[in-house]
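Project standup — Tuesday

K.O.: blocked on the structure for the chain from last sprint. Re-posting the sequence here as requested.
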Amino acid sequence: MHTHKILQLVSSGGFYGAENVILELAKAMRASEFDSLIGVFNNRYQPHLELAQEAHNLGLPVQLFPCAHPLDRHTLSHIRRVVAAEGIDLIHSHGYKANFYAWMAGKNRTSLITTCHLWTGTSLKNRAYEILDRTCLNRFDQIVAVSPALEAQVLAHGITRSKVQMILNGIDTVRFAKLSNTSPLKNSFSLPLEAPIITTIGRLTEQKGHLYLLQAVPSILRSRPDIHFLIVGDGHLKEKLQKSIQDLSISNSVHLVGAHKDIPGILALTDIFVLPSVDEGLPMVILEAMAAGKPIVATKVGGVAKAVEHNQTGLLIEPRDPHVLAIALLDLLQDINRCRALAQAAQRKAKADFSSAAMGSRYLEIYRTIVAKRSSQPKQTSAFSPKTRVLP
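H.V.: unblocked you, prediction finished:
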């Protein structure tokens, strides 16, 4: 059935939002005429192959691209060889680095599409990639933004309007709605079985606003000393967060547990989900918390308000304000009926508006349009050989 091939290309920092989108897209394309190859940079100093392993586990073809430094000509040559050998019709890149390599490897060879998940510019390296990003994006056939805020940001940097579309992220809502026994997971985190749990999930970076949540914890514990906080994720702020937890004398109630594969299980044990970010695209974890039927407190940044409607499917607050964050969380903790109503409305909205099937159909429309423009005769090719699956 498959007559066209897509290289989904990413330089991954772990299994987070963009990686989730790539996996859901590849799964959705299985029923279409497009065959997906998951291309992941195997970076020498910060290798993150979680997406590659997850894709491999699902039987999806995977290609690793060894990369010794940010601008590695050997990596570029490798991508070009794979594009030629596999007959790639379209490269779909995700993120600064992947965009640059896709442009260099695919120009005059294949069609190009990118999804802009977030522009952060939080490091010198990221800012350099962002400058390159803005330089090469107009050479792409299509640019997808995952939120209205990102769409406006892309257009503000002079990208041709006709090349930009907004597609909201989507998830496998059924996977997160399943009930599970939470006792083993609570025991593994040393959480009291009956304690209410407030959870946040995300990379330990400035963008995610963990320090503001920690600053809100003491006042919450003064009113509700039985509450426990679960912080799930890894990142360069880990040591700073650990020190803040000690300095605030909240180590008995705050659990910094690192990254975890069982996000549905994490959400199942959660009573309230909180996202204190200072910047976002459309975070997948918000959609997952909604699908799991959890009351949510989140900051009104990026595309969050496309999912969380204040007082309808959760509570929205301004970022960088620990006092307001504490008040919002205490309000929910004191009103079980309100929590239940918000959670049920959020779950209904997730099913209606944020399914992976809906997201996949929008991307499929773009893929078909791009390929049709490039060639009036679809190229007949066989599916990827199992030899492409390079993981053990």
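K.O.: great, moving the ticket to review. The chain has a mean pLDDT of 91. The two ends are 27 Å apart (CA to CA).
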